Amino acid sequence: MQEIQTILEKQVTLHKSLYVIVKEKTNFIIKQDVKALTASLQKEQSHIAAISALETKRIEAMEKSGHTARSIEEIAGSFSEYSILIPFQKQLIDIIQDIKYANDLNNQLLTQSLQLIHTELDLLVPSKREDSFNYTKTNNRSFQSNSIFNSKA
């Protein structure tokens, strides 16, 4: 059980660190600092890899203890010595919810930024829709005059 507790403590620490990174990402998105955002994404990926490795270790430790497919609450209900693990589980649930809310906010900010970029691009580049309202016949000669290579020469 000590091994499981140690793993849960490390998971809580890594999730708290991941939450800090996700909150930093929000500031970088607002400031439109792409370089810092990219560095933050790399840090986030390394944290996610470490969290996944710890989760694998936790599952293996649970299998060793004979509690393979059961949750910590179920195990603590059956074996009182495991009740010490419940605060770690609650901390993880709270931190993961905070990370989810922060990621949802980041997703909304990025979506709005992309919509703004598309709107600005639409203003800069004339769309072909303007031509669709013109009832004049298209002139094929204009395409020939735009050619760089003169085949008759």
In short:
Helix content is 76%, strand content 0%.
Low-pLDDT parts are: 142-149
Give the DSSP E fraction (strand runs of 2 or more residues). under 5%
One letter per element, helices H and strands E, the order comes to: HHHHHH
Subunit arrangement of the protein = single chain
Helix content: over 70%
Radius of gyration: 28 Å
Largest sheet: none
**Helix/strand class:** mainly alpha
> First CA to last CA: what distance?
87 Å
Number of helices: 6
The rough form would be described as elongated
Mean pLDDT: 82
Give the beta-strand count: 0
Question: Can you describe what's shown?
Answer:
By secondary structure, this protein is mainly α. It is 76% helix and 0% strand. It has 6 helices and no strands. It is elongated and about 70 Å long.
